[in-house]
Design a protein that fits this description.
heterodimer, A: mainly alpha, 6 helices, disordered N terminus, B: mainly alpha, 3 helices
């Protein structure tokens, strides 16, 4: 991507600075463009494939249905339970597809930037969407006191243990969970992309700058880069799945009678 | 907060864990926009489709069950009809047999009556003929006898009463002789 790498003969390893690209115009940076692009892609895909749905699906409708089915039945219904899951299906589907497309940007040629490697985006989803929502639905169902009692005083524990357990529960459920939700996908994307950069740019450096004897090693580096790309593809899908799964599980936990 | 962790990596490098406010806002807005589109347009279409599909499959099953029930019913009906037809045919056969028997019986009776009538008629006719013949013979016989007697005697008998009595007695004897031969 037109990135200038080495100064002279010294190899400069890629780092976090590679995730802070200069703005394209004004204050608009590449990840911002990609986020907008991602919602256009997802919305267009679903709007077109669901425009004229048949009971017997066409190829594209089948693809869209598979994604919807997966979010609806495998994630949302599994985590929230078949009684109350319906209102959350659009949310989980949106989370899944939004994160998925933004992650996959990391390995799509030309684009090649996982938007979720910028912490602002996963943070917005985790802290500003999932976190308030799952507490809200919990409080709406059980009332403020009932909800906190549910969350902080799990039943079936000796009274004395609450002294220890309740602060832990409070810390985990109201502080760590949303933060970890964001950091998990952010860190995976950042690290994964960094690995790809290391192998790709390292190979390039070896080919262009290294002594003749070492030049063939660049092929090894690129082979690794390709292998890592496959691994990345897997991780990107997996992280999107985990993000949606955990969001659904938080909602399910907030709505559960007792656990 | 946690940024000390990654600060070890590089000195001049920007801090990746500090969110840019613009990115947070953009991420949120973009996400909510997508959420709106999906929950407003996409999800209802899918749910509608699912409901349709469920209805169709259930309808199909129901229809199949109905068809099966109908087939079963038709089969029962046919079986019943068949049994009925069999019973009917047996009954008709029995009836026909009985009727034939009756007709035979009637014909026999009729034939017997006819034969009896014919026999009676014949008997009567014979009787009449016999009577006629007897009468004729009697007249002839009287005449012949008188003629014979007058020839034999050669003269007319003077005693009228004696002559009549003689003739009558003779005839009665004749009757007595012929009577047993009649039957």
């Amino acid at each position: 991507m037109g990135r200038l790498l080495a100064e002279g003969d010294k190899f400069a390893p890629p780092g976090v600075k590679d995730f802070f690209l200069p703005p394209i115009f004004g204050g608009v940076t590449k990840p911002m463009v990609l986020v907008v692009l991602s919602i256009i892609i997802v919305a267009t895909f679903f709007l077109i494939t669901t425009r004229n749905m048949k009971v017997v699906p066409s190829k594209w409708q089948f693809a869209a249905e598979s994604v919807y089915d997966f979010s609806r039945n495998n994630i949302t219904r599994e985590q929230i339970g078949s009684k109350e899951f319906r209102p959350f299906v659009p949310l989980i589907l949106t989370l899944f597809t939004f994160v998925l497309v933004n992650n996959l940007f990391g390995i799509i040629p030309i684009i090649q930037f996982p938007t979720m490697a910028k912490i602002g985006f996963p943070l917005a989803l985790a802290i500003l969407v999932v976190y308030p929502l799952h507490h809200y639905v919990g409080i709406r169902k059980f009332g403020l006191g009932g909800y906190f009692k549910n969350q902080l005083f799990p039943p079936g524990v000796p009274k004395l243990v609450y002294v220890l357990l309740t602060p832990i529960e409070l810390f985990l459920k109201f502080f760590m969970d949303p933060l970890m939700l964001a950091v998990r996908v952010f860190a995976a994307m950042l690290a994964g992309h960094l690995i790809l950069l290391v192998f790709t740019l390292g190979g390039e450096y070896l080919l262009l700058q290294a002594p003749v004897v070492l030049k063939p090693v660049s092929l090894v580096a690129w082979a690794f880069a390709i292998a890592m790309t496959f691994l990345e593809a897997f991780i990107q899908v997996l992280q999107a799945y985990i993000f949606a799964l955990l969001a659904a599980s938080f909602i399910g936990r907030a709505l559960a009678e007792e656990h | 907060m946690v940024n000390a962790l990654l600060n070890l990596a590089a000195e001049e490098q920007p801090d990746p864990v500090m969110p840019h406010l613009s990115e947070v806002i953009l991420g949120l807005v973009a996400f909510l926009l997508l959420l709106f589109v999906i929950s407003k347009f996409v999800a209802p279409r899918f749910e509608k489709l699912y409901a349709e599909r469920t209805a169709k499959i259930e309808g199909g099953i129901e229809k199949a069950e109905q068809a099966q029930a109908e087939a079963e019913q038709a089969l029962q009906q046919y079986k019943a009809q068949l049994a009925e037809a069999r019973a009917e045919s047996a009954r008709i056969r029995d009836d026909a047999r009985a009727e034939a028997e009756q007709i035979k019986e009637e014909l026999r009776a009729q034939a017997q009556a006819e034969s009896a009538r014919i026999v009676a008629q014949g008997t009567a006719q014979l009787e009449a003929q016999r009577a006629q013949i007897v009468a004729e013979l009697r007249a002839d016989l009287g005449r012949h006898a008188v003629e014979l007697a007058s020839r034999v005697v050669g003269e007319s008998l003077e005693d009228e009463t004696r002559r009549r009595g003689t003739v009558d007695r003779f005839l009665s004897e004749l009757d007595a002789v012929s009577a047993p031969a009649k039957n």
